[in-house]
Amino acid sequence: MLDLDLFLNYQDSIIKGILMTLRMSAGGIAGAMVLGLLLFILSRAGGFWTALLYRGYVTLFRGTPLLVQLFVVFYGGPHIGLEWSAERVGLVGLALYGAAYFAEIFRSGFEAVPKGQIESARDLGLSRSQIFRVVLWPQIMARSLAPMVGQSVILVKESSVLSIITVAELTNVAMTIANQTYSMMEPYLVLALVYWAIAISIARLGAVFESRLTHYQAG
Amino acid sequence: MFDFTAVVPYLPQLFRGLLSTIGVSFSSIALGLVLGWLICLGRVRSGFWISKICAVYVSFFRGTPLLVQLILVFYALPSVGISFPPVVAAVVALTLNTSAFQAEILRAGFRMLPEGQSEAARDLGMSPLQILLFIQIPQVLRSMLPALTNETLDIIKNSALVSAVAVHELMRTAQTLASTTYRPLEFFVVAGLLYLLVTLLTARAGRWLESRMRMV
Question: Do the Cβ atoms of A95 and A28 come closer than 8 Å?
Fold first, then answer.
């Protein structure tokens, strides 16, 4: 029924596809976390314009489909002199998109910290950066960890969308195999199983991290 | 350089695409809510095996990309003799996907219900079905409304992926127009703005519903 031999002929491109998926996801997640943190700090900087910029960014990137964002840069970019490779558009696209979500995760982690703590830390003579590093950051991280793991899984899954802008990641490879061999079931079924395995692994890994970090969490 | 006036003659076409996006998304959300309830009840109210099967269903549909699920419904199922017209296939895939997410949302809502409530209702002589319909479901829906609104927003955005398989919704229409007019930037930006419009309005509607349903 299922013809699994056909995978042997495509070993190389499958391995390349998996590596590309991992590269795009890992790069996208890392970029999104860093950028999301910067956005969060920007939103805490105070002032009308920074708040507006933050709101605008988050609304725009969370309110439109990733596919549209990718298409604007990939197909629209060359018309304004931005000729990026599909991989670069994919990596930057995932990072920009994910950053909006990570920034909101950090923000809600921050808002869960009781404000009295900041006041007492200030009264104890801690400087602004000390308050952030010693008092706020560990608590924000403890609260953000579970949603960050969830968001990372989402980004790995979203990286499959990059196949549409011709990045040769796993989904793209599966489509190629299906089109060349006319077998539609096996490549796509295995494709789904690989993503499923990645998603479950990340969730497990996150659970381990979480159990180590939660002693920071106030009850 | 930018010439958004080029988009104007095609606005009616884009709006038709938008309507199709709205139709596909909201019918999937509604069907997904029904299926999601069944799966949620399967997880919290059934025996070992049904509960396990529902857990695997939820794990699979939450753990694999929607694009892959769409591809499975569009290309893999027909190869074993199950095929649908494109729009139906799109709704089927989106419904399967969102039902898993909605089942988890509803399950979280169930866990927040105090145990004593259903005991009290039973002592008052209500049947298990009555307790479910009149006491538990309304509370779960109300407390989980923000999460359900977010899920609706996700489905509206994710429905753009349907364009990759065949349905002429907003994204597909924008793609066709972008390539026939050589103005990808304008058409994709306008498509993005239309999605933004729908997601913002839906978020607004969700908040309005929340304020209407708030407990006094």
Answer: yes
Domain ranges of chain A: 4-218
Identity of residue B189: V
Is the pTM of the predicted complex or chain greater than 0.90?
Answer: no
Cβ contact, residue pair B164, A68, below 8 Å: no
Chain A interface, mutation test: which of B167, B188, B199, B202, most A Cβ atoms within 10 Å? Answer: B188
Q: Which CATH class is domain A4-218?
A: mainly alpha
Domain boundaries, chain B: 4-215
For residues A186 and B76, give the distance between their C-alpha atoms in angstroms, rounded to a whole number: 8
The CATH label, of 2.160.20.80, 1.10.3720.10, 3.20.20.140, 1.20.120.610, for the domain at B4-215 is 1.10.3720.10
Give dist(CA B27, CA A58) in Å, integer. Answer: 27
- Tens-digit pLDDT profile for residues B108-157: 998 888 888 888 988 898 888 888 888 888 989 988 999 999 999 999 99
Complex ipTM: 0.87
